[in-house]
Amino acid sequence: MNSVMNKLQQIAEQNLIDIEKAKKDGAKIIGFYCLYSPTELAVAAGAIPLPLCGTKNEPIAAAEEILPRNLCPLIKSSFGFAATDTCPFFRFSDLLVADTTCDGKKKMFELIAEYRPIHVLQLPQNQSAETALPFWYDEVKKLKAVIEQHTGHQITDEKISSAIRLLNEERMTLKALMDLAKAKPSPIRGTDMLTIQFKTGFFADKKQGITLVREIIDELKHNAESPFSKKTPRILLTGVPIGVGSDKVIKVLEQSGANVVCFENCSGYKKAFTVDEHKEPLMALAEQYLTIPCSVMSPNSGRFNLLGELIEEFSVDGVADLTWQACHTYNVESYRIEKFVKEKYQLPFLHLETDYSESDTEQLRVRIEAFLEMMR
């Protein structure tokens, strides 16, 4: 496993060089801020799509010179990277694509427009096939036109279909990796799982990323010795998006003797979907992306359905719900998530609200150790 992780790091470092070279050679790069925005349209235009949500604490201080301190750390980190020009992926981006998920993000996007051209999709607040889908389809259609204008390339149905097949393959390969943790004990730490998904998400060469993840799957299936025992508490983490740099809760959970076997969030199973390859491609994108079960949707029944499936499939011993400070939609929804987990599955539940800093790490550790003790 160490050799594969070393290879991942080497490819990640080379990937940054490759993106810079592609940029100099005329390739267009499009940065995406949310899972709702269909990256297939960038691929179909011959552009390189890159994720841009901030997961590091370092740029937050600079962001707080403009943004309120009592704002979600993901928003502040994302804006801080732009304001300080310290994210190479933001610097490389010719166009930014965002959408109106939460109020904090959509107001932040108004400010970030001073740094790069940005197109903001108007996201519906529900997932109704009768009312929301036609509106969202028009938004996806507008995005297609914007990307065509910025790249100078026409996006045909054939190119969209090809991009759908490629990204379906990528998502299903990542799902196959995540599914390995269904084994008891799991062959992989949650921290390693997150690192693999996070770093491969920036790969400009999608096929290279798919090949590497398949190598990791093969290694874990045939050569890896589990770092856990059958008695290790198995935790499902739900809630907000996380990444390398905003992963302190996962680290504390596993340092305290648990294994995070499943991520029910935008970093994990929420993006493990397939777009229908047999429908009209633009409508297929609109339909599938609108079903993403984020707490900004009201109602958000999809999250409960997904959570129930994962609880059963991963044989979890407890559920931890992570909320970033000032993330009101996830904070409010946590009440119903707790009720669902405790009443339907009779499982221990822990709601944690925190930020990206390390200042409350020991307080979190005390609560997490008490939570794990309940399972023992």
What structural keywords apply?
Rossmann fold; 376 residues; alpha/beta; single chain; 52% helix
Question: What report would you give on this structure?
Answer:
- With 376 residues, the protein is an alpha/beta fold.
- The chain has a single domain (1-376), classed as Rossmann fold (3-Layer(aba) Sandwich).
- Helices cover 52% and strands 11% of the residues.
- It is built from 15 helices and eight strands.
- The strands form two sheets. The protein has a four-stranded parallel sheet with strand order 2-1-3-4, sandwiched between helices. Strands 6-5-7-8 form a four-stranded parallel sheet, with helices on both faces.
- The longest helix is centred in the N-terminal third of the chain and has 23 residues, at 2-24.
- The protein starts with a helix and ends with a helix.
- The mean pLDDT is 97.
Draw up the topology in text:
Blueprint: H1 2-24, E1 29-32, H2 40-44, E2 48-51, H3 60-63, H4 73-84, H5 88-92, E3 95-99, H6 103-112, E4 118-121, H7 132-151, H8 157-179, H9 190-200, H10 206-222, E5 234-239, H11 248-255, E6 259-264, H12 281-290, H13 301-313, E7 318-324, H14 328-345, E8 349-354, H15 361-375
Helix pairs in contact: 1-9, 4-6, 7-12, 8-10, 11-15
